[in-house]
Predict the 3D structure of the following.
Amino acid sequence: MKVIISAGGTGGHIYPALSIIRKIKEKEPQSEFLYIGTTNRMEHTIIPNEGIPYFGIDISGINRKHLFKNFKVFKDYRQSVKLLKKKMKEFNPDVVLGVGGYVTAPVVSTAKKLGYKTLIHEQNSIPGVSNKFLSKYADRIGVSLETSMQYFPKKKVFFSGNPRSEEIQKAKAISKKELGLSNSKRLVLIVMGSLGSTTMNQKLKEILPSFENKEYEVILVTGKEYYEWFHNVYVPSNVKVVPYLNQMLGVLKSADLIVTRAGASTIAEITSIGLPSIMVPSPYVTHNHQFKNAKALEEKNASIILEEKDFTKETLIRKIDFILNDTKVYEKMKKSAKALGVEDSATRIYKEIRTLIDGE
């Protein structure tokens, strides 16, 4: 199988794309890949480091605040289409996949116009601008959440779940001892996205000392840019502050509770393993989709929402204590989260790709 895959901008798009690549490699080891992303965002370093052939295009999203700046956006788009036509004809893929981010718009639409088979995947509860645009160019459309199916043509859409859910199933749990923690104490993991959050880290600097004397332990993942902020903060002995976790999936499998943003990949991972959560939806995302993502979990008793504006040491610790100190509450959340999980998402997507290529 020859595959062009495109996803960019955030880990929420890039890591599901990598999960799909790994599944295809598992099923068809001789497959060839070409990853198309931007020249200046996360994917342009992450993907080559994975040993995957990479082609970057200069492209940016539409600027809604300063419309005059979009002249360059449209110019770059047209130039990208010219480059993509040449590159696609050279590679001659069996299928072209778009897994989120504005970079996918020229990739998938160009592929369809050239006659290649196309599939896109939507991770969030509310489709992004690119996937709305691409719905007419995609042959098949996978969604992470069943509630998202209503936004796409019925004949094209299928419920796949998020491919990260399958990735965490395979991950080996990292023992608490390996992390320098106690096996006999419960672990609360606090992580606010792959890059961290300015607002949340400011709040957490004030909150950390309040974890002293709690019977559980805490790992705070700050994000690399914010780690130095905590050098002069009092950190209790039951709290560990780290800039980044290389084996995040393994740590998730050892955690007892997570305090996190409500990104689609995170939700896929924690529901796949039945991990209770306190969701702090980012208020800075398009269509407030993280709140809607979190609400879908809270309504099923799998999570508790704590909005950023209400995030204080009193509210956070009260909610953590409420979940961890009541066995019935904890077990119900764990069971409810697991019931929402999809354990074979990447396999479902692979099967759709194979069917599309085979023309069935």
Remarks:
- The first strand starts at residue 2 and ends at 6.
